[in-house]
Amino acid sequence: MKIKKLLTSPRIIIYLLFFLFMMLAISPNPWHKGATIRNVITNSTAYNAGITSSAPRTPPMNRETIVEINNQEIESADDYYEVIDDVKVNDTLYLKTKVKRFLFSYKTNDYVLSAESDITTKVLNETVAKKTIVEEYDEDLNKTVNKTKYVMQPKTEQIFNGVKDIGIRVYDAPKTNIKLGLDLQGGTRVILQPEEKISTENMDALIDNMNQRLNLYGLSDVVIRSAGDLSGNQFIIVEIAGATEEEVHELLAQQGKFEASIGNETVFLGGEDITYVCRSAQCSGIDPRAGCRRIQDGYMCRFQFAISLSSDAAKRQAEITQKLDVVYDSSGEEYLSQDLNLYLDDQMVDTLKISADLKGRASTEIAISGSGFGLNMQEARREA
Question: Residue 215: which domain range?
Fold first, then answer.
């Protein structure tokens, strides 16, 4: 009788419901095995095979976990690295992963990766003649003709460094959804201080740039935030789970490299070539003329931003675009025959079409626009 009365007590029922919801949230599973993916490096072999980093807020138990490689069971991170260390060039890897969907329901994914050679190019102190075809106006024929020219370029040598890193970082599969702090799960916290006081707008832009740079390496457990003290000093706090102090220093200390190219030719570089980048709402952000709209597979948002180029960069752009043809897209818009490729730290981050009216023009004021796509409007705006 007492037990029945106890079980029907509102307070006990609330406690039991709270305990049930807590267990569902924590989702304990002491038998959970495998190598959970911490991050995937952008444009790596794994990334190109379709494997991606989990979103930062994904619960630990819901993150993709490698459970098998080439029919060999993977029970821990050590098992994973032991297999990967024995991989040879051109070996094929068959990865099986699982992702938790609900309670004890899992979805399995299969990936096929091919181990590639890690080759770097060394520039030698020699030059070679490269054959190129350029368009020139022939006064005798009164028309533009193709002429063959030879341009001296530095000679290069390819160096084989072994097997290319497939780009996956893993850790032992978690047993619960409890997220451990850096002190328990391992990681590094770095506190940076700007050399001089900067505005809130520039601080936000700096944090966005740091996030984008670290995202290139597939790091998902990254927190970057601003902070200050009572004396008015400004700080940037960077927390990266699963990374050593040396790795974080290497990522943050090296100077970022931005490059825009057409084909194999560099149009402009970050630094001296770009004299101004607009960050105000009038000339950057979501394009107010196009905005965001629904498309067949989700949403699309148009973005825009303006930059100013040095005279040398503008001249270089004119010389490169002069050689391109004018083409039409499906909507009848005129563009140049090659795209403008944007690179950050030698990783391609975007590809943009070039308006036909820039052909051969040494313009120092450039308006860049493009599109971001997502399953919902918020995701599309974030991608833009």
Answer: 182-253
